[in-house]
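Lay summary. Proteins are chains of building blocks that fold into shapes, and those shapes determine what they do. In this project we predict the shape from the chain. Here is one chain we studied, written as its sequence of building blocks.
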Amino acid sequence: MTELRRTPLYEYYDSHNVKVVDFGGWAMPMQFSSIIKEHEAVRERVGFFDCSHMGEIAVTGPDAEGYLNKIVTNNVTRITDGGVQYNVMCQADGGTIDDVMVYRMNREQYLVVCNASNTDKVWEWMNEHLEGAVNLENQSDQWGLIAVQGPLAEAVVAAITTEDVASIERHRFLENATVAAVSGVIISRTGYTGEDGFELYIPAIDTQIVWEALLIAGEEKGALPCGLGARDTLRLEAGLPLYGQELSATISPLMAGVGFAVKTKKAASFIGQEALRTQREEDLSKKVVGFKLLERGIPRHGYTVFSTEGEEIGEVTSGTQSPTLKQGIGMALIDSAHSEIGNTIMIEVRNKQIPAEIIKKPFI
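And here is the predicted shape, written in a compact code that computers can read:
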């Protein structure tokens, strides 16, 4: 049996008897208390997540901007210093390799943050298509990453730093910051929960120092450490895609509903551009839609979707019982002919077909 990879917070989990599970080869906590309590803490107050399993790849050199613009779908030239841009890496056929965040320090220095399970694949892809005066460095082991999410996130982060975090706008970041006496931190106003919040990129060796400082600072505000369970229910309520479910080698960013990050008309050609342009011009055969169940039940990934006439039209990509809405919600990849907002579809839940209404995302 292959030993699970560990984040810089593993020793904290071990010493505090926090149960970890196998998450894509990583030892990660699914929950600290309960998924519901952690979910509600983020929606109402603030919660902390260990996201140190994510991958970080530095892209530097005179041709860094042009190189990135050829391997991602969004327009990298639109990012300004201190800006963060959501992006997608695609195959030539438009299928998704990964969705990533691109951080711009300056025109010759970027950081690409990718999903943990895809780090090796993204690293190989970036090297395979490397050109020009560009240097790549896989810095994934050098960084710890803590997400601080919720309406009280700003107050908690401000309590452990002298940096002016209130001035950091959404999708902007501050580098070389000092947090809890730890220097070299990146404070980014980003997140994956649908709430305001920050992601703190911390030198790996100092991650636990910042984690424990956050726990102390957040205690009086009702903050909770949160696991992967709440992270998933939160991002689903926010209608955010998850690689391997709403995005994959066979699900393009246009099909997934993140076409805002696909600039098929940008000056620089990019891998997958022609395939995505064709999809956009000729309409999509399948789309990812949001839905809510009209009766009791919990939709799950892989459940079959039918039309009201009994025709199989797709499958659920993500689903859960929404802690906020108190009803079953989900996303499904279905035939485009049935994807109009307001349409009724049928979700097969435990051999019973339950009606669901297609609704606009996000769910909250």
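What the prediction tells us: The chain has a mean pLDDT of 97.
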